Amino acid sequence: MYKNDQKYVYIRTFGCQMNEHDSRKIILILKELGFESTDEPENAQLILFNTCTIREKAHHKAISQIGRTTIYKERDPNTIIGVCGCVAQQDKESLFDKYPHLDLVFGPDQINKLPELLDHAQRKKRGLSVELVNTPEEYTFLDQLPEEVAPASSSFVSIMKGCNCACSYCIVPSVRGKEVCRSPEEIVAEIDQLAKLGNREAVLLGQNVNAYHSKRSNSSTKDVTFAKLIRLISDETGIDRIRFTSPHPKDVGEDLILEYGQNEKLCPHIHLPLQSGANETLKRMRRGYTRERYIEIVRGLRKASPDISITTDLIVGFCGESDADFQMTFELMEEVEFDSIFAFKYSPRPGTFAYEQLPDDVEKVVKEERLEKILALQRLISMKKNEALIGKDVEALVYSLDRMNRGLLTGRMPDNRIIHFSGNPDLIGDIVPVRVTAAHKNSLAGEMIG
Ligand code: SAH
Ligand code: SF4
Ligand code: F3S
Fold first, then answer.
1. What is the CATH number of domain 393-448?
2. Which residue has the least CA distance to atom 7 on ligand 3?
3. pLDDT at 217 over 70
4. The CA-based dihedral angle spanning residues 441, 345, 99, 67, taken in that order and rounded to the nearest 10 degrees
5. Which of 245, 264, 291, 409 is the most exposed place for a label (fewest CB within 10 A)?
């Protein structure tokens, strides 16, 4: 029900978990300014697009949505329309030239400026704020200690921002700036508070989470590495499950591998982006590891935690990728048998090293063929792995009702698989024992035990 004297915000989010998390922070800031959120843009006084530019398609999707918002402005000229996130950071003020009806453009490091920007916009002035904040002294993590949260089972927690890698295909470093790590005290305090409010799981977020490095302010001696941070969180908070995304293979230390073997709270899953199985391609991608090193990490992880599920990201058709190179990726997939993958056709991004210096020389049809080949292979592997779980008993953290409205519950298994089963909606937020009864491509079905 819409109230006349209430201000509403409609926010549409594209892209990765960082953006999802940023949108939540934006909503918290706007709540303080008197806004409620709505799913209907026609009822909103403020319309925001939190955008992604990782591939051309993502960029295009965001841009075409912005173009369509002129209708809201025509209907009510006081409607404020803004673009934030990675397209805002990439395109900056040129967005105003392209879309004269836009009021706000702000980058991912400028979310805290939102009250000021809105004030500007309400006085019919455009607001632009696209600086990157690259030092710990100047950067504030917006995650506040939550006073209250909606009954949730799992929460994202930023532990760092930005990325210091230089993967030649990737636009993230230029739109998210340099790495800044949050202090371990702040992270531990937030997670402990989340646990006290009923959250069971924390998902640690960062573009390269395992590059995390900090010091505890109360003991000047000890460095806090990523593995150490996980240990601190499990020792000093009441959270039951710890996950993270995304780590980089070159920064996987022996201490993280050992943690998988020793820490019950660290979920047996890692999403470890491989990108390519060919050393020549990896070199041109500037990934900083070889095929052999990647396989070695996988072996180490499986030795420490035999049932660990390993998922990955792959890019096909990167500059100079030959049939033989592609075959190396295919064979590595057969050897490692990932539990699931995200795979993409290479998309040149302006401003990146690859865009400037390497020819995008794999034909579109070849990219498509290669993508289809690895997706087909993965379908077989995923299905085989899911079927192998039938009859097993697992602990599922109940997230929500199932999205298809079949009256089932949706739970997440420790290994990150989704499982559907029937049960009382009161169980949302609980960890319950479930027996796996059937396997699908991307999920499992089960029955609660006892
Ligand atoms: N920080 C994360 C990745 C963020 S982007 C990490 O390094 O793991 C998510 C995925 O998008 C990447 O892993 C990569 O597979 C893909 N990707 C990034 N840039 C791309 C590009 N230019 N073309 C195609 N895929 C890309
Ligand atoms: Fe991009 Fe590489 Fe950084 Fe991931 S690690 S965000 S792929 S530059
Ligand atoms: Fe996209 Fe920005 Fe994330 S480009 S993938 S939303 S960091």
1. 2.40.50.140
2. 172
3. no
4. -40
5. 264
- Separation between Cα atoms, residue 378 and residue 358, nearest integer Å: 29
pLDDT band at 124 (very low <50, low <70, confident <90, very high): confident
Least confident range of 141-150, 196-205, 316-325, 374-383? 141-150
Q: pLDDT, tens digit, for every residue of 385-439? A: 999 999 999 999 999 998 887 889 999 999 999 999 999 999 999 999 999 999 9
CATH number of 132-267, picked from 1.20.1560.10, 3.30.750.210, 3.20.20.70, 2.40.40.10: 3.30.750.210
The sign of the dihedral angle between the CA atoms of 187, 189, 190, 191 is positive
| Probe target for ligand 1 pocket from 18, 344, 347, with the most ligand atoms within 8 Å of CB | 344
Are 82 and 48 in contact by the 8 Å Cβ rule? The answer is yes
Contact 138, 131 (CB under 8 A): no
Asked whether residue 299 carries a pLDDT value surpassing 60, the answer given is yes
Mutation pick for ligand 1 pocket among 52, 54, 160, 374 (CB with most ligand atoms within 8 Å): 54
Q: Using H for helix, E for strand and C for coil, what is the string for 110-179?
A: HHHHHHHHHHHHHCCCCEEECCCCCCCCCCCCCCCCCCCCCCCCEEEEECEECCCCCCCCCCHHHHHCCC
C-alpha pair distances (Å), 51 with each of 17, 87, 339: 12, 6, 29
Where do the H-state alpha helices sit in 237-339? 254-262, 279-285, 291-304, 323-336
Q: Which atom, in ligand 2's list, is nearest to the CA of 166? A: 8
CATH number of 7-129: 3.40.50.12160
Domain locations in the chain as residue ranges: 7-129, 132-267, 393-448
Which structure tokens are listed for 78?
Answer: 């006081």
**Residue count (the chain):** 450
d(C-alpha 425, C-alpha 419), whole Å: 15
* Vertex 324 angle, CA 318 and 326, to 5°: 40
In this prediction, residue 88 has a pLDDT band, given cuts at 50, 70 and 90, of very high
Please tell me the pTM assigned to this model.
0.95
Distance CA 302, CA 445 (A): 25
Query: Which pLDDT score is estimated for 219?
Result: 59
